Amino acid sequence: MIEVPSPLRLRLDSRALIANWRWLAAQSGGAACGAAIKADGYSLGARSVMRHLAAAGCRDFFVATWAEAAALMPLPEGISLSVLHGVGASDMVAARTLPVRPVLNSVEQVARWREAGEGRPCDVMIDTGMNRLGLRVDEALGGALDGLCIETLLSHLASADEDSDQNAAQLAAFRAVREAVPARRYSLANSAGICLGRDFAFDLTRPGIALYGGTPRDEAAGQIRQVVYPETRVLQLRTVHKGEAVGYGATWTAPRDGRVAVANMGYADGYLRCHAGTGGGASWQGKALPLIGRVSMDLIAFDASAAGAIGEGDWLALDYDLPSAAARSGLSQYELLTGLGTRFARLWG
Ligand SMILES: *Cc1c(COP(=O)(O)O)cnc(C)c1O
Predict the structure, then answer these.
(1) Global pTM?
(2) What was the pLDDT predicted at 308?
(3) Are residues 206 and 238 both part of a single domain?
(4) Ligand 1 in contact with 152 (CB < 6 A)?
């Protein structure tokens, strides 16, 4: 087979990933710090994220689905993996075969696991107020989990990225369940929850977004390093004259004679149309190239008038610091990562 290089790449900084995990682990106090690697490690590549974090000492990983778990086999030595979405009837073959724990989310799932789980340990999610996944608190306190071999009892915070009364309410509800339901470990905090303080850490924390360069709350500002650097190649440089329009709908018109760099990336790669007109763009050798016109499916255009000797085939670095790109575009930091498509080569450094 011939090697075909991709004109798009994600440069991925493993040292920044590990530094972010270490900071989150330190903020977690005495609790172990795990990692959410669902959605293919927020698009970075779950297998690579697991390998880097496992080498740094991370032991507890979480994916959403059994297909995601199966894709990570075989697991490195000593690694624990849990499937957040639990076990439906069609998941039982995978759940009995893979060395992975389900996170049981309902009394129906608990019954299924009691019947067919062969006494193996499981994790359990308690819903302390989000009303998404998990057993209700009254179900957990009412004996629904009696006799089950629970490795980790979890709950998930709905508003940890805000200063909301819901955080204290969920903490109190989780503490009440912890008093009543035995488990080897208890786990409540995601990235934002870690920033709420040690009370939220319990035995195990489960950060996702902050590992990958997201700033979940102000407490983490200046502490979290950028991990993902999307880059795209210049396909063509063209001259435009004052008054000429660029792209679909002719939404941008050249204010003076200049140069335009057309690059290999578009909304099919997760670089959505809402990036247009927000003041962001890319850079080349330290020079800013503002994004101009509409984002096409596979192409984007930048004003390269100030970028001197730039040429066809040069790599442009996108402005993709997550907090500022989110503020500009209106996308969440999560969407900015998980949308990044399969045409990017993923290069770890
Ligand atoms: C995704 C997820 C996490 C990680 O959340 P972040 O906000 O990315 O830190 C933790 N726990 C559960 C249950 C999740 O679904």
Answers:
(1) 0.97
(2) 87
(3) no
(4) no
CA of residue 183 to ligand 1 center, whole Å: 20
- Asked if residue 311 is part of any domain, the answer here is yes
Atom number in ligand 1 closest to CA 42: 8
> pLDDT tens across 242-283, in order?
999 999 999 999 999 999 999 999 999 999 999 999 999 999
Question: Is it the case that residue 106 has pLDDT exceeding 90?
Answer: yes
Half-sphere CA count of 69, side-chain side, radius 13 A: 28
Nearest atom (ligand 1) to Cα of 206: 10
Per DSSP, 9 falls in state E
191 lines ligand 1 (CB under 6 A): yes
Spacing of C-alpha 132 from chain mean position: 19
Band (1; pLDDT cuts 50, 70, 90): confident
85 lines ligand 1 (CB under 6 A): no
Choosing from 63, 156, 200 the residue with most ligand 1 atoms within 8 A of its CB, the one to mutate for a pocket test is 156
Q: How far is CA 259 from CA 239, 255, 263, 299, 304, in A?
A: 5, 11, 13, 16, 5
* Model confidence pLDDT, tens digit, residues 63-76: 999 999 999 999 99
Q: How many structural domains are present in the chain?
A: 2
Measure CA 185 to chain center. 24
Domain match, 184 and 292 both: no
To test the pocket of ligand 1, the residue of 17, 153, 186, 190 to mutate (highest count of ligand atoms within 8 Å of its CB) is: 190
Let me know if residue 126 belongs to a domain: yes
252 half-sphere exposure, CB direction, 13 A CA radius: 23
Q: Tell me: do 54 and 191 sit in the same domain.
A: yes
Determine if ligand 1 sits within 6 Å of the CB of residue 84: yes
d(CA 206, CA 32): 9
Q: What whole-number distance in Å separates Cα of residue 18 and Cα of residue 13?
A: 9
